[in-house]
Amino acid sequence: MRTIDWADGKIRTIDQTRLPEEEVVLSLGTVEELAEAISSLRVRGAPALGVAGGLGIALAAQLARENGEDVGGAIRRAATLLASTRPTAVNLKWGIARIEESYDPARPRAVEELIERARAMVAEDEKINRLIGEVGADLLSQDSRVLTHCNAGALACVAHGTALSIVEVGHERGLVAGVTATETRPLLQGSRLTAWELKRMGVEHRITIDSGAAGLIASGEIDVVITGADRIAANGDVANKVGTYPLALAARANGVPFVVAAPLSTIDLDTPDGDAIPIEQRAASEVLEVRGARIAPEETEAYNPAFDVTPVSLVSAIVTEVGVVRPGADDLRVLVETARGTAGAALSGDGKP
């Protein structure tokens, strides 16, 4: 099934906080329920958040019409609430704006058309994710040993994923020898989610402690590092799950390609560089407690950023649905604007990273 979808007038999504122990599907019938699901990471991942934002606007419009309320006002309130839940992932605001701006109260089927556009985003994201995999798999060599961080798979999108879409297609082509996933503390998205997806794919895999990943890269056991992204600035700087930056440093130091996989919607041309990307700070309890039991002394404080920024100088390639962008060789702004305008662009993305 799709990770997130529209069904029977509600938003259906897998509760990622319950994996891998249980596969629980949520049916979200209000914008407030969706906002809570996003804040609590029941639904997460940049592309999935983009779709969730669009579906949330559709849900707000539907409920307002059913209750005889002002649809435009309901849409604006929903947009404000949803956009406040996760500040770093640009896809969320992109998805919200895309559907919000399509609402025209003068049209007789305005709400129906808005819902149709939001549902079309779901199918579009699924197609884009698969294309990222097909484009990115061309960068893999035979028997590639891949390292990935956090979860950039189907759970982070509608289906397939970004980084894991490359693994999926590479596996189908017989190119992937195995995948090492970081555990990704403190919420263990690698151990809980990525390993769950890799097992379902039938891909050989293992988990490494986060602090062991750099040494593993240095040992020669990794051929390529592939991650997703939560926001890519106009200059190519990449915000992704905290811990990505040191992996990029280790990769550069050891001559290992560092590849970022993301849809065009993750590239934010309004953000000039990584310094301008807001970094979400998560609750201290995620670091100071385990399953509700405190593990650090009282009065100990925590630094718990959800993301860090990897400078473009460390990025070998950015894989999108329309091709591979080479930092330093391609003008990211020109290529993205061209691709968005023509649904395709001539990128210098042939060959290996």
Automatic annotation (TrEMBL):
Q: Which InterPro entries match?
A: IF-2B-related (IPR000649), IF-M1Pi (IPR005251), IF_2B-like_C (IPR042529), Initiation_fac_2B_a/b/d (IPR011559), M1Pi_N (IPR027363), NagB/RpiA_transferase-like (IPR037171)
The positions annotated for binding substrate are R44, G45, A46, R86, Q189, N240, K241
Q: Which GO terms describe its biological process?
A: L-methionine salvage from methylthioadenosine
Which residue positions are annotated as catalytic?
D230
Q: SUPFAM superfamilies given for it?
A: NagB/RpiA/CoA transferase-like (SSF100950)
**Family annotation (Gene3D superfamilies):** translation initiation factor eif-2b, domain 1, Translation initiation factor eif-2b, domain 2
> Superkingdom of the source?
Bacteria
Pathway(s) annotated for this protein in UniProt: Amino-acid biosynthesis; L-methionine biosynthesis via salvage pathway; L-methionine from S-methyl-5-thio-alpha-D-ribose 1-phosphate: step 1/6
The entry sums up its family as follows: Belongs to the EIF-2B alpha/beta/delta subunits family. MtnA subfamily.
Tell me the protein's name: Methylthioribose-1-phosphate isomerase
Q: What is the organism field in this record?
A: uncultured Rubrobacteraceae bacterium
Gene behind the chain? mtnA
